[in-house]
Specification:
The protein contains 11 helices and 12 strands. The protein has 340 residues and is an alpha/beta fold. The strands form 3 sheets. A 6-stranded parallel beta sheet has the order 9-8-7-10-11-12, sandwiched between helices. A 4-stranded parallel beta sheet has the order 3-4-5-6, sandwiched between helices. A two-stranded parallel sheet has the order 1-2.
């Protein structure tokens, strides 16, 4: 049970996760089937309603599967009507509106409650997410399993020259706190020998117009670029051209794009008080505020030995073989027999 596949130029972390699960099942020779949910309103509310909430439950009602795996909690609205064992993966726990519309948060809360109530096992991408599920949604800790993402092997250090880019990749919503990154970049540009550096923000979302206006009001609009719709190969190239990844987010279940950048040899700066799992930020550079965020970016682009101390040996997560073993252990526990 997953969202419709990403297009080449419109990818998401949840889409990558769903693709990865499909790859693992294929590799193991498991008989499986996809049921797709459209859970965004980018093509209108009616299409979202029909393909996200009406058609999938009708399809599922006709299925006779031993195990259903919802690759994110928004696919769980139909859980009460599904027979068979059910597993769901939570990528993070929403605490407030993440966009302009209250529709998504309301829907998320309904789906999340059903996911917690009707699932036989819950996969949390971090210990922090497990804690939030237990504390905020009342999940039974005995049925919540922490299983960190594996990073797509396409993301690796190509050894290319860096292009004086401070980069960000993510959805432009309040939680991502990109405005703080723009203000920190303004401070960065006032430091010696930073001519030619640009802040490149990759993503779309309801905050974009406000972020463009902020860059204009701060006088750095000519050094801030907004881009989007990068395919995986283009994203690989982008990560490898960055000098620094500015991870400004204040709350993440894991924060996949920063980890992808790290896998490409790019140092990551983040805010120390952000609610991001410690296992994810192990090799990130912590900052107390926007001024220190700017100073850390500056040190990383001017001090090669310090940069190497941050990037050398930085890694995260399980490889795909280890991940599949842990995942199939959870399936086995739910089914009461060895899987597959």
């Amino acid at each position: 049970m997953r969202r419709y596949p990403d297009t080449e130029t419109k990818g998401t972390g949840i889409g990558s996760y769903s693709d990865m699960l499909e790859f693992l099942l294929k590799r193991k020779g498991v008989d499986y089937e996809n049921v797709y949910f459209k859970l965004s309103t980018d093509e209108g509310y009616m299409k979202c309603l029909r393909q996200g909430f009406i058609e999938p439950p009708l399809v599922l009602k006709k299925k006779d599967c031993q195990l259903y795996h919802a690759t994110d909690e928004l696919c769980c609205m139909a859980f009460p009507r599904i027979k068979g064992k059910k597993v769901v993966t939570f990528h993070h726990v929403s605490k407030s509106r993440e966009g302009e519309s209250p529709f998504l948060l309301t829907t998320w809360r309904m789906a999340a409650k059903r996911a917690v109530k009707y699932s036989d096992a819950i996969i949390a991408v971090s210990q922090q997410t497990k804690n939030e599920l237990v504390e905020q949604l009342g999940a039974d800790p005995e049925k919540v399993f922490v299983l960190e993402h594996t990073i797509d092997t396409i993301f690796r250090d190509l050894g290319k020259p860096r292009d004086k880019i401070i980069g960000f990749v993510g959805t432009l919503i309040e939680r991502k706190n990109v405005s703080a990154g723009i203000r920190a970049f303004k401070r960065f540009t006032e430091m010696p020998s930073t001519d030619g550096y640009r802040l490149v923000i990759c993503g779309d979302g309801p905050m974009k117009d406000k972020l463009v206006s902020l860059s204009e009001s701060l006088g750095v609009a000519d050094r801030v670029d907004f881009i989007s719709k990068l395919g995986k190969e283009e994203l690989l190239d982008f990560y490898n051209r960055m000098d620094v990844f500015a991870n400004t987010s204040m709350h993440e279940g894991l924060g996949l794009t920063a980890l992808e950048a790290q896998a490409c040899g790019t140092p990551v700066v983040f805010f120390r008080d952000a609610e991001i799992p410690k296992e994810a930020t192990k090799h990130f550079v912590p900052s107390e505020g926007e001024e220190e965020f700017a100073q850390n970016m500056y040190r990383l682009v001017t001090d090669d030995s310090y940069r190497r101390s941050v990037t050398d040996g930085a890694s995260f997560g399980l490889d795909s073989e280890e991940y599949s073993k842990e995942l199939f252990k959870i399936y086995s526990k739910v089914l009461g027999r060895e899987f597959p």
